[in-house]
Design goal:
By secondary structure, the chain is an all-alpha fold. Helix content is 87%, strand content 0%.
Amino acid sequence: MNIFEALRESHERQRTYARAVVRTSGDSEKRVEAYKRLKSELQAHETAEERFFYIPLMSDDNGVDLSRHAIAEHHEMDEMMEELDKTEMSNPSWLATAKKLSEKVHHHLKEEETKFFQMAGKILDDKQKESLAKGYVKEYEAQLTSA
């Protein structure tokens, strides 16, 4: 497995969980569970991705700007989750913020897969891609279990 395949697996889960969150209503058990899954997935993925994808890419001049942009988007998603955590799930503003988060997640993943992966593919060699995937998966799993 290479780093792109490892990241795409999490991306698919993020898309599924983000869609599930915005289809829920009130402070239902479904909403609580869907948001919990999304938040855990996003946080584990962000940490592992920054450590085993974006930080290594920053060592190349061509990877600096895209890495900074992606990390900034991670921060925006974190802020939206903080806002969700402070808002009652039954409040209509909770769903509005959840929809913004879902849109940001979908935008970010599309951008990564259509732009960032292509640039990274030129920067990283095959051995790095495999090595980074192993580090990413290990860190991702550690983050999920500690959440």
